[in-house]
Design a protein that fits this description.
The protein is an alpha+beta fold. The protein has five helices and five strands.
Amino acid sequence: MSIERNKLTVRAFIAAAYCHADLAAIDAYLAPELVDHSPMSGLPPTRDGLRLLFAALRTAFPDLQATIHDQVAEGDKVVTRKTLTGTHEGPFLDLPPTGNRVSFEVIDILRLAGGRVIERWCVIDQLALLRTIRGPADSGARGRRRLALVRRSRVGDGFEPA
């Protein structure tokens, strides 16, 4: 596939999975043998793990939207920088719904083969996600403790609040 075709495929996947809550997009755009090199903590590094992640995102943020800022491709890989926004209306990361608007950056690298995603690497701005979920009222010792947990998390690990 051409680089431009791969970029269009990734854009279509983002629109379907993030913005339209179309879980069928998981099977349409992700290869059965997909390897997720940065799965969320507790999820398998597979296509089924991503299905669980997207379902959890939609439950927590029913109005979730993705805005793509940059997309760069070379060979069989597409890098996308995007902002996810939504309203925290369901549980997420063991945090009860707050009703807060969330906004956080995500950068992912997707490798495609045969028109489908076969590998995924992802970096999420976990600090921004946590800050916007908790809102401005979460300050003081509890807020500092949660920030320390984010700082100690390893690259690729999901965040699990205490």
